[in-house]
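FORM 7B - TANDEM STRUCTURE REPORT

SECTION 1: FIRST PROTEIN
SEQUENCE AND TOKENS:
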Amino acid sequence: MTFVWIVLGLLAVILLSQAIFVVRQYERGVVATLGRYSYTADPGLTFIFPFLQSLERVDMRETVLDVAPQEVITEDNVVVTVDAVIYFEVTDPFRRVYNVTDFRLAAMKLAQTNLRNVIGDLELDETLTSRETINAQLRTILDDATDKWGVRVTRVELQRIDPPRDITEAMSRQMKAERNKRAAILEAEGVRESAILEAEGQRQSAILEAEGQAQAIRNVADAEKFREIAIAEGQAKAIVNVYSAIHEGDPTHDLLAIKYLETLQRMANGKATKIFLPIEASGVLAGVAAMADAFEEGKRPLQEGGEA
């Protein structure tokens, strides 16, 4: 009797283990009754009928699928080795379980096939410089193909594109030659820019020097003009003052005649061999003669008085 209870207890444990499932937060449970889809179980504790129903867990998290490296021929007949990774996530657990047998294998083969198609339409240089374009094209193609499997391809990344060794060496030499060419061009441009800047500096220096000299000449001319104007104004004021003083002093003809004679004496003391007298000199000389006559008349009474 004890043995029977033990057997029944074991059967109960087995039935409970087959009937109770715990679906995790990131999973969904696809429940089938006698092989036919019944419902999709949400996260938590789920009960099914043992031997009549089955539950298959489906991971809903984003998953990475590594595509095996393969050799691909480009449009210009260069064999390159391509390696890629695919990021995907399940959107429909029912289609993920019932529409594809082995999703990973199917996605890998699909990615390899489309890699050959996409890269086969590009030349080697385009393949090496168009990774983003290739990634976008592959993602679009794979996403459309895997939609019926209940899977969404989030992104595709090319890990490496390796050309043959001889092509790599030729590209390395080409890049080195291109760098040397750019260095020579930059050096020549630097020399040219330096010469242009030096010539421009010399031109600006000459212009500034000429402008400085012109300004100095203008300043000297302005100063000379100011000096001459000041002298002329001073002379004019002196003449005006002398003229005013003469008129205010009311000089006699005798005084004017004496001053005129003094002036003639200074003129005669010069080195000139000819002396030009103004027309008015006759009047002055007449005044001098009159002074002489007056002087003689003054001496006669003196002489007569002496004789007396």
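SECTION 2: SECOND PROTEIN
SEQUENCE AND TOKENS:
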Amino acid sequence: MTHSSPLPTQQHDYAGLPRLSTAALHQRREHTFLIFAGIFLGTLAMLNILGITRFINLAAFIEGSEAWKYKIAIAVGVLPYPITFLCTDFISELYGRKRANFVVFTGLILNIWVMTILWIGGALPGFEAPDEVGEGVFYDVRRLAFGAVTASMIAYLFAQFVDVQVFHFWKKLTKGKHLWLRNNGSTLVSQLVDTTAVILITHYYAGVLPIAEGESLWPQLLAFIAAGYLFKVVVAAVDTIPFYLGSHWLRRYLRLAPATEPAHPPAAAAVEAGVG
């Protein structure tokens, strides 16, 4: 697989599978891409609005955890976040680095769009009394979303680009082998970058982390980072199986060459181009 998107005029021959017309192949590849991009962008919009509106207590089911000195919690917006990395890994694997980076950049535009609508919604006159402007559910969500998006936009850009670059670094280093390594290796590095940035920015910019007064700050921040990162590591490990199975099946479905083989041998490319 090259770093560019596969052309619909190029397809790998699999034993037992018929060749597809250019139109059918193009439709399959674009529909599959749209599904991954749609899940990625939809999840991104949802998690930025829900973001830091509530924190989940990860230790709630552990007896005696209420007496722990530091909280083990993650923001509700973190729950679907690992799915975004699985989507970009699929896009990177199937469509190449350029298209994965384009989806990441589109996510930045989506963040700006969401914030623009929230800003306009709060700036336009409503039916509140003059002394009630800025109060109520909408303004609470708006304020928390601004804090969450400011944190996530910065962390997201760093983390997603790191994810794509590390993914292709491992893919090149292993010559397309060891799918689990590039899937987990890229995600683990990028999630550490993301978690650290989100926690620090959320605290220092938005000031909404449930910090215990009178306790040392940095141990609490490190506990939040560790909890968020552990959650993402577990999800990354779990999603290795669907990534393996999904990549294998989708390569056949989309008629893409196995990752360990060139996308198109020179002879095949020449025949498809009408040469010889």
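SECTION 3: OBSERVATIONS ON SECOND PROTEIN
The chain has one domain: 22-272.
The first helix runs from residue 22 to 50.

SECTION 4: SIGNATURE
Preparer initials: ____
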